[in-house]
Amino acid sequence: MGATNSTSKRRLSKRFHNNNFLINDSYDRFSNNIPSSKRRISSESTISSHSTNSFDRCTELIKTFGSRKYFNRDHVKDIFPTDNDELKRLELTHIWNKELWEGQSFFLPVDEVFSRNAKVLDIGCGTGIWSLDMARKYPNCHFTGFDIVDNFPLELKQSNVDFALGNILEGLPYDDNTFDLVFMRNMKGCLSQKDYNKCLQEIIRVSSRWILILDSDIILIDGGPLANQLREEVLDELMKNYDINMMPSSIIRKCLEDNNQLSDIHFEDKQCPIGEWGGRLGTLYLEILKWATKNLYHSVSTLYSEEEYNLKVDEAFEELNHYNGYDMVFRICAKKNVEKRKSLKKIVRNT
């Protein structure tokens, strides 16, 4: 799955190493900053027993397999559950993303958006954590979280945040050029290959200036034989059953590069260690990947029994930790040429 680059690994290990990192401590410190009365999701330790979850209120939109809950619409991908366990994993992924990109969720070219009273749309916002974080950091801007399930907070005291329900594949309920920045992160498990073009066209339509996308390619470079075998089996099954490609960077880049409304396309990928050899980030990423892989069981259940599958996942990730494997994450931003497009329309009308 790629040649070993020992020099690169040594650099990564030195850069990311940080002793005494505890994943649960990191999550607890983060989630404790959000009062339980304002959250729909969390572990039992941070949410009261009488709190109301969206998937408990909207039972007609939920189907259950075993002990896990999934969104119940035929044309919507549901490879991951929509329950407390999965949503907690997504919040941990937010912590990892923040640290991976050194506390910045955007490219330098996009930075100028936050220096003024910008309107920002967060596609697939999940629990709303990115929007809430950014709204606190940039009180002069307004953030709108958009998702198909309302797992975002019940109550808000931040006047510069709101949330909306909807399916981007059915169209965004906003006018053209509404938002200065449209942000999307970690949506590869929700979109088929053919969905990306429709999704990105909507994102481009409602953006007036920038779009920014963060995600990862599940490559598992130098992952070892067990991890690579499980990866191939899982990815093949997801492609066969859902048309989902868990390595979306090339799909997204092509969709953006082929769109004549965009310019200044910037792409950056980064190696992320998997395992303790990578210190804090590597330990965190291994936990997130392992958690995600186990949460995929229902979507790949024809491969193994659940007991066999979980055992294989445990063995594969023990091997990943031993082999010092790593993965590729990426972010890509592009600028929309609103002025150029308007000028072109004017020329056409005068001809």
From TrEMBL:
InterPro entries in alphabetical order: Methyltransf_25, SAM-dependent_MTases_sf
Domain Methyltransferase: 120-206
Pfam family, one: Methyltransf_25
Name of the protein this chain belongs to: Methyltransferase domain-containing protein
CDD domains: AdoMet_MTases (cd02440)
Source species, domain of life: Eukaryota
SUPFAM superfamilies, per database record: S-adenosyl-L-methionine-dependent methyltransferases (SSF53335)
Organism: Rhizophagus irregularis (strain DAOM 197198w)
